[in-house]
Amino acid sequence: SMADEAETKGGLKITSDDGNFSASLGGRIHFDTYLFDTDIEDPVSTTDFRRARITLKGNIYDWKYVLEQDFAGGSTGRGFRDVFIAHKFLNGEVRIGQFKPFRSMAEMTSSNEITMLERPFSSAAGLYEGFQFQQGIGWTGVLDCFTLGFMAFNLRDAGTVRNEGVGAAGRLAWHPINTDYATLHLGTALNFENPNLDSKDITAEADYAGRRGPTQLIALSPGDLGDDVSTVSLELAGSYGPLYFQSEFVVGDYEADYYLSELDFEDEFGAPPPFFCDPDLGCYIGDQHVRTWYIQGSWMITGEHKTYSEKRGAFNSARPSGNGLWGGAWELTARYDTMQNRDIYKLEANSAQIGLNYYANRNVRVMLNLIFGDDEFTGDNTNQLGLRVQMAW
Amino acid sequence: SMADEAETKGGLKITSDDGNFSASLGGRIHFDTYLFDTDIEDPVSTTDFRRARITLKGNIYDWKYVLEQDFAGGSTGRGFRDVFIAHKFLNGEVRIGQFKPFRSMAEMTSSNEITMLERPFSSAAGLYEGFQFQQGIGWTGVLDCFTLGFMAFNLRDAGTVRNEGVGAAGRLAWHPINTDYATLHLGTALNFENPNLDSKDITAEADYAGRRGPTQLIALSPGDLGDDVSTVSLELAGSYGPLYFQSEFVVGDYEADYYLSELDFEDEFGAPPPFFCDPDLGCYIGDQHVRTWYIQGSWMITGEHKTYSEKRGAFNSARPSGNGLWGGAWELTARYDTMQNRDIYKLEANSAQIGLNYYANRNVRVMLNLIFGDDEFTGDNTNQLGLRVQMAW
Amino acid sequence: SMADEAETKGGLKITSDDGNFSASLGGRIHFDTYLFDTDIEDPVSTTDFRRARITLKGNIYDWKYVLEQDFAGGSTGRGFRDVFIAHKFLNGEVRIGQFKPFRSMAEMTSSNEITMLERPFSSAAGLYEGFQFQQGIGWTGVLDCFTLGFMAFNLRDAGTVRNEGVGAAGRLAWHPINTDYATLHLGTALNFENPNLDSKDITAEADYAGRRGPTQLIALSPGDLGDDVSTVSLELAGSYGPLYFQSEFVVGDYEADYYLSELDFEDEFGAPPPFFCDPDLGCYIGDQHVRTWYIQGSWMITGEHKTYSEKRGAFNSARPSGNGLWGGAWELTARYDTMQNRDIYKLEANSAQIGLNYYANRNVRVMLNLIFGDDEFTGDNTNQLGLRVQMAW
To answer: Looking at domain C28-51+101-392, which of 2.40.160.10, 2.40.128.110, 3.50.50.60, 3.10.310.40 is its CATH number?
Structure first.
């Protein structure tokens, strides 16, 4: 018969009989509990909705929309996630609206499928703090065994004050091997940001003891002085049966040319300046060279294999076979993550993590992370035990 | 045929052909108009959206999610209502996320089905002011003719500042009689709260002249001193044909050990202290014993019977038979509600209400309440005429 | 078979087999980019989500709900758009909740179908600044070749502070000609507002260089003094094949009786008072007579015809025939818009605009506007180039 088709895998979906139209309503709930083993800093141990999103998607001929709102964002403006209009173009799509610049493998991985509770410092959880989603225009697609993405953007998302800063980012990922059992991934990305009238400061920050723990400021380029920020990254990742590893190495140049009083320096960076400050002018902050890298990996104890998404140029979660304890899949995880300012002595933070993930089915996951934080600048060694229960549909 | 099934009773619902998946999108609009007959206090008479919610629910095998946002909450954080992940367990479900602690029959009644415009003082509209939904883990289920619920929680919801306060609540309801014509319900609940780092104050407050009217503070236990709050309640309720009554009696112990200046006392409680205050230290506030009880009832003029929800351990609205004026059902309602601090002379507020409800159909209801407020502490006798038009789907 | 029917044209819709129930989830994304050619004023050129809405609608027998939230509103309260419960009555519907007062043809035109990027000054983009949606009760319907609408309202929407101001508005539109090829429309509307306890100021403001550009205050009636505001308007519009024009003329009386210091006057109005101010009392602001009118028109280059919505008493967008460049429809547009305070010398702002619209299909539109702003009071001549990409479903 000629009727549109309704479908559910936990969400709502309807597709027209001619395939020209479709619409779906999905969502995700990520609920966290975290306990700190405090040291110098004294963060609050509590529970928190990390994400509570609804996601509307639809297709109208060659056009597409995504409208995603995270009610855990604090306000409707800050709750904007992917909100864009797209049109098919080559083997991909041109997007206009708000989406993520293409500049980190970790960012390209869905929050439903990340290995640890939070993304590493090479993502908006560190290097691109406060600049995860941007407004602009871009294209992403797959050509042969390459995944490409480009975006020209305004330095704002829907929750940021209107400003005239601009930027551009591009990423090229290559998967020379991608079979049912093994994948090899190499990638590189370039990013450039030019703040301008009313732009906010561009900072690199390390949440070295997990989310809501202490934050170490690594670099700051003022938003109103027009100093540029640029980053270059390399990616290496792979999987082999139940094993998986992923690594990114990024160097960033945060241009700056300003003075802070010794008091302000300590306020911002958490410790006194380790260099001589001019008695009249204060502590000089020039161009700052940031270096961050991480390596993470996992072993699916129950034998499943993480597949690779060519569209994203990043790994998916393994799909549980249902053979493990409690009818699910189990995964052991680990990461070492570090970020440093190469121009200020000992301005460096590190994070070592181990974890265990339980997949009840394709939609439900429980994650446990033990995070050992190390702030070399302040000497703080706060640790975190974090637990997430998540469902996505 | 093997197709998923779409269905509407005003909302959107799709169920998979094998029954393993389902999803629905519902909602509710409650629109209020209220006029005050002011006395000492001078509240604003106006219109207000009491609730404007969307409710997403879904099932994936034995798992379930609820994601409910009230756009009338003021912000997305304060708009979180039931937002949890659940798993079937015994004859009930284990929940993790945000939901209501099990501690009051009035709270267990859906806002779509409450008898008067607002719940009585024994609920989050009084005794648990600002603590209606909490984050934590719990179980609720039905065993034989008992409805049980337990929850261990953090002293926060999604709109509260992160803090380390904790609490626990449990409720046992018994329905020895529950036929098509008559129900007898008895219940009891225990609740305990222990504020801690960054917890907000725990207060009992009486909105004795309806919502948005004057508020009388009955007791306050400071959030940062670690003093505990505990409550014990008894429930008695029943229905017989078109008649229904419900009553709760609660005693609460708000631990405290602090001094207020006479000015601060009057600011907080609305009248001068009725006891001697130390000239140096101020007015001493020690442990405060709160007592609140209400009795409410209704008569379905058009003869319908309110059924009892075993799952909630609370009464449903009557389903209109369509035989009344304008093809709906009509209900006469009344309540007497009182709350007092037993340790401070005359610190007591009372509320007497009568009302009329019209049910156009299962989804649409119009409510009219006349509320006579009486604040014995300040002498204020503000009254309210309140009207609600509501639709739920 | 007797199954409810699912359907998509980009959104989700389900209708019950007996037609008694239906529900739909739609939405819209309007994404703007604007560049200013600045003069005296210095607004920020940037990108912005003009609208990002979800729209739930449903029918239950003769009742209906609309629940629309704009995530681009800044907060959930300010994000309320149409949120009401309605019941069929005569050849129309009685509404209760939040919706637009019936007082401007431009306001009655959907934001998906407006001719230029923004509505003219005769709408909530000027004369009714901050009062687009109100809470109250009303009726709208079609009788023969007349479209009528009446509303009694509170001076608030869901994002406004609770207050006791009230108002009423009514509109009568007549379409003596309405064929497949030509329409003639005449209309008139009356509006009255009476601010009271806690009401905000009622102002007329001209965004003469497009949204987010400079604003010229034209008149201000204080919210707390009980001075009334009333407006009367005339509408003339028509279409003939691919041609369309529309015009409104409105006079408003903003009662006032207050003094401003010369400094405050300049703060509010952007230029020194052009009249004598009393050295002791300041600059007297009495009743202010506002006059605003616009004329706008368009030519569908690709030959389509804009149809007329009898329900709204306003024109729809043309439906693209798909014969134009890039398979869509193209439209040339223009508007001249002016608003002045007749009691203060040269207190007047004008806006001349030309534009080009591209309709990719029924759901997707791209709009380009060039706006020449002229503030006669301050001498500012800021211009704006605005681009919108929109999708509605």
So the answer is: 2.40.160.10
